[in-house]
Design a protein that fits this description.
The protein is an alpha+beta fold. It has a domain of 38 residues. Helices cover 19% and strands 24% of the residues.
């Protein structure tokens, strides 16, 4: 009998874009990497952040 680990996240209805720092009331893209939640105001910001950080996701 195996136990599955589950994580429950509470995501607020507002936050700050991980790329440009703009306060947003919704997230266009939400990405979790190494336990850190990243939210982005637009797909453009998300792509810019990926280019800057060179993060691989899949």
């Amino acid at each position: 009998m195996s136990k599955r680990s589950r994580q429950i996240f509470s995501i607020p209805s507002f936050g700050q874009c991980s790329n440009c720092g703009v306060e947003v009331d919704y997230a266009e893209v939400i990405l979790m990497i190494n336990g850190r939640l990243n939210i982005f105001c637009s797909r453009k910001c998300f792509r810019e952040w990926l280019r800057k950080t060179r993060v691989h996701y899949g």
